[in-house]
Amino acid sequence: MSRDVVIVGAGVVGAAIARELSRFELRCTLVEAAPDVGARTSKANTALLHTGFDAKPGTLEARLVPRGHALLTEYAARTGIPLEQTGALLVAWSEEERVAFAGIIERANANGYETIRELSAEELHEREPHLGPGAEGALEVSGEGIVCPFTTPLAFATDAVLNGCELRRSAPVTAIERVGDGFRLDAGGEAVTTRYLVNAAGQHADQLHRLLGHDDLTITPRRGELIVFDKLARPLLRHIILAVPTGTTKGVLVAPTVFGNILLGPTAQDVEDKEDTSSTAEGIAYLRSEGRRIVPELLEHEVTAVYVGLRTATHGPDYRISVDGGYACVAGIRSTGLTASMAIAEHVRDRLGEAGLELRPRADTAAVRMPNIGEFALRPFADSERIAEDADYGRVACFCERVTRGEIRDALTATVPAVDLDGLRRRTRVLMGRCQGFYCGAEVRALLVEAQHRTW
Amino acid sequence: MIVVGGGPAGLACALELRRRGIDVTVLEREQQAGGIPRHCEHQGFGIRDLRRLQSGPRYAQHYLELVREAGAAVLEETMVTGWTGDGALEVTSPSGRETLEADAIVLATGCRERPRPARLVPGSRPDGVLTTGLLQQLVQGGLPVGRRALVVGAEHVSFSAVLTLRHARTGVVGMTTELDRHQSFSLVRAGAALRYRVPLWTRTAVAAIHGGRRVEEVELTDLDRGVTRRVACDTVVFTGDWIPDQELAAGLGLDLDPGTRGPRVDTGLRTSRPGVFAAGNLLHGAEPADVAALSGRRAASSVASWLSGGNWPKQLVPAAIRVPLHWISPNAVSDRYDVPPREHFLLRSSAFLTHPRLEIRQGERVLWNGSLRRLVPGRSASLPAGWITEVDAAGGRLTVTCVAN
What we know:
heterodimer; A: alpha+beta; 5-stranded antiparallel sheet; 24% strand; B: 405 residues; alpha/beta; 5-stranded parallel sheet; globular
């Protein structure tokens, strides 16, 4: 089979690129090693919508994050991706940290971000009365927000597929070679040839890069452990609470999630295994001690989940995006990648255009509407009209997260359907709540089995 | 009159209300009412309340029939999702979204086991990590479980998990508890040891779970020696460690008790909000189904007196426990001085105590003191309730202390 563009990796970045290119008259294929879109690094992060106020000025990241923020905010409203502009407060816990505010403001201004402003300790306490003692003041970054890390790549992939992009899941790339003025890949046991190749393989981008004979990229997985607290803790916070960054890390943050929980994390630890998403006793203990300091009452609440994400760290200070002939390498996209994804896609599109990819816009493109799984907007269980149209939206299956049978059915029959429990979780929130399947786990498994006519 | 939750407590409450001629509707979010006993295939249900011995599913069915024959409406697939600002119920069902108001509401929403994340067990997140509740439903639904399971916990329910696993032909590699002995009956433990040859590893913590798609091994730490070892298994069942399903109670702003984590209630099971009662395992986590049912029955008589024009107590005098005690239920006394469910308080300890001497005070005044035979973590002991008439219902909180053991 011959394609114009093959994109390797259906994380948020690969899916965004596939979506962007599918809007043109191109034969595109998006291949993913995992059984689902957004199932690796993209699913496990802090889910922040960054403004880029703290990026290193002059970098590609500093340019693409604010652009991505604007694009994603607009796209989310159009497609139903849960997104809330909560604003962030960067809190100083010592006089020394408060002194660092001047430098942070200066950098924000250099990045073109002007709305940053300083709050006194009193103003901060008024905004966030549950913060721990000792806060000296804060910087308010009102443009920061939270966005659903599950719906975003799924929306991009759905958009791409509806516009004719081929999606192959469970299709790891095992071999790759240059042939003529293109490439031949072996993905999931099937050969594909393509004129252009986009490497968006995330954690494995360096391996793909080496298969093509390059040795100038090393991705070091950096483990980030995060704790999700019960939704009963949600009233404790209104904003994202950021730490004053040190030279090496942005520190531990506390943030609301679009699902109505409170998130605490991440840790930062370099690991060797690109698949090792294990949490550690030390990491959990460290986060709890930080949480106790930042929002003491948080620790009185039950923990709903502990998860681990692997950042795709490189040695450089910036994203690693390069286009060389027909090969685009899009690597080292760190925690800001969720926000920047659509801007990265635009950037890659333009670079590929310069490299000769013909970009003729499609006459008609699909209008995607994703199921809302965020707390902020109306969900099916609370929507009289939806229930009147279809009683299955009135049948709550997952009580903790209020997921209805109608939503589970939709997720199993979507354009990019769920093929396993994790996929069902990310599309509906089912099993993601405080009981972790105590009540509905068997029923949900039965629905999945029934949908797939196969034994679990 | 609305009862939220159609398990043993909610159904027993509705039955008693009907016997007193009160109209009642039970709202049940599951497809079938009956509660947790529906999934407990073993015998042993119904002794205290129905004076007969039945399996869990039979018991649940029996209650449901009694309640329906008595003329109560039991609405299944009907979930209360929250409250309006003035305390009406927001309800979702296949027939739509509605707001329900009632003169009295009994919350009987039950309890759940703490799953792995709530216990902060590190490691990877493979398939095969269950609670007893999930295990029972998987087996009942004919869904596969695994081949070798580790059972975390050594309470009654943990042994019940062993039975369920063996019924599903899943091997049990062992049971672990961080305590220095199991918390069930000696006969139950001996049965598991002899019949299924299940080893019990005491003073043992689950340090981590490892595996890719499926559980591969579990890291266990010997708490006395600090040594860690690995046990191969493909299933881990976290049992017991119950927590009330208190979301609705919290959402209404009811006072919660730090010990039970359920709502604060007086001996007549009145909460801190007029017209709202709470009953069953929502009050304290899992007690046997018949104990929950009798708590529901007790709530019904308080509801009847409220509906016939009774006053709501001006205040609930909280009963606070001191370590090593874990909780007491009911956890308050009021000027109504009602007899508590089954005429006594339930008391739990977080440590094994033999012949503990207990004291209940209000300020400097000792209201009661006495000894119990023993206290076992995870199992309730009964405390007499005669002393409550000595409580100053306008006074300060009560303290329940173990003074010697």
